[in-house]
């Protein structure tokens, strides 16, 4: 599958970069914090109307965020605080890029895209918060297609193709769709647990609760599967063919 090949190449590159960074002795938490710098530069370039430069900085920031966990594992420096810091920095990075896009559309006089950018940012936060809150009471809540990696990829493509507005349209819909999907998933799992008098033994986890129909309903297939490739293809086609509004 297409995404499987991309994923394998990405994993090999991540391991190579992580080894090089780990050999340099850079602490994982410093690496996590440093990802804010390219994201801030992406936001600044967006505000100046330099979309290609913003795409490059967003990609660089995403790579830094991708390898910090790998560096921590390779160096044996994983920590609970590091996981918390990574989550907080992810939210800050997301905010920087979206705010840059909102500023850009405001500067060129596109109030509708300003609104869509704000809605998309709210959805991005909702996706992450819903999972974090739900997993306080259920074992797992990673349903839905629009994970952070997919959101960043859509923004980078939108910037590179000069279709950031269309990317905001898709993200405003898909991020909130994923948020609602996670709420529905949490409700169903919590209900099952309550009916079992709090006993989680035998309770299906993840999308097993919903079966095959649920996987299509939640657009949630493993990266590298043909179903995931179909979902990605439909979203890419929408990004390219959606008209300006």
What does this entry show, briefly?
The chain contains ten helices and no strands. It is mainly α.
Secondary structure layout:
Elements: H1 2-23, H2 28-34, H3 36-47, H4 51-75, H5 80-107, H6 111-134, H7 148-160, H8 164-195, H9 211-217, H10 226-241
Walk me through what this model shows.
The chain is mainly alpha-helical and 245 residues long. It folds into two domains: 1-93, Four Helix Bundle (Hemerythrin (Met), subunit A) (Up-down Bundle); 110-245, no CATH class. It has ten helices and no strands. Helix 3 packs antiparallel against helix 4 and helix 4 (51-75) runs antiparallel to helix 5. Residues 3-7 have low confidence and may be disordered.
Question: Segments where pLDDT lies below 50 for 5+ residues?
Answer: 3-7
Radius of gyration: 19 Å
Shape: globular
Structural classification: mainly alpha
Say how many strands there are: 0
Sheet with the most strands? none
Share of helix among residues?
A: over 70%
* Element string (H = helix, E = strand): HHHHHHHHHH
Termini distance? 34 Å
């Amino acid at each position: 599958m297409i995404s499987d090949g991309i994923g394998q190449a990405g994993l090999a590159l991540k391991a190579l970069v992580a080894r090089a960074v780990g050999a340099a002795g850079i602490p994982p938490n410093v690496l996590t914090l440093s990802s804010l710098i390219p994201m801030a530069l992406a936001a600044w370039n967006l505000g100046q109307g330099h979309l290609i430069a913003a795409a490059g900085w967003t990609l660089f920031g995403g790579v830094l965020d991708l390898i910090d966990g790998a560096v921590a594992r390779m160096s044996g420096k994983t920590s609970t605080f590091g996981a918390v810091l990574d989550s907080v920095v992810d939210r800050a990075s997301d905010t920087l890029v979206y705010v840059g896009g909102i500023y850009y559309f405001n500067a060129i006089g596109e109030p509708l895209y300003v609104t869509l950018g704000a809605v998309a940012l709210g959805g991005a936060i909702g996706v992450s918060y819903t999972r974090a809150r739900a997993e306080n009471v259920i074992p797992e809540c990673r349903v839905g297609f629009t994970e952070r990696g997919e959101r960043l990829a859509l923004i980078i493509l939108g910037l590179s193709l000069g279709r950031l507005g269309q990317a905001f349209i898709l993200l405003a819909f898909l991020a909130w769709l994923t948020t609602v999907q996670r709420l529905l998933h949490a409700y169903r799992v919590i209900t099952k647990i309550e009916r079992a008098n709090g006993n989680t033994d035998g309770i299906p986890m993840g999308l097993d609760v919903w079966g095959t129909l649920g996987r299509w309903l939640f657009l949630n297939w493993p990266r590298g599967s043909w179903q995931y490739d179909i979902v990605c293809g439909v979203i890419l086609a929408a990004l390219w063919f959606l008209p300006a509004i």
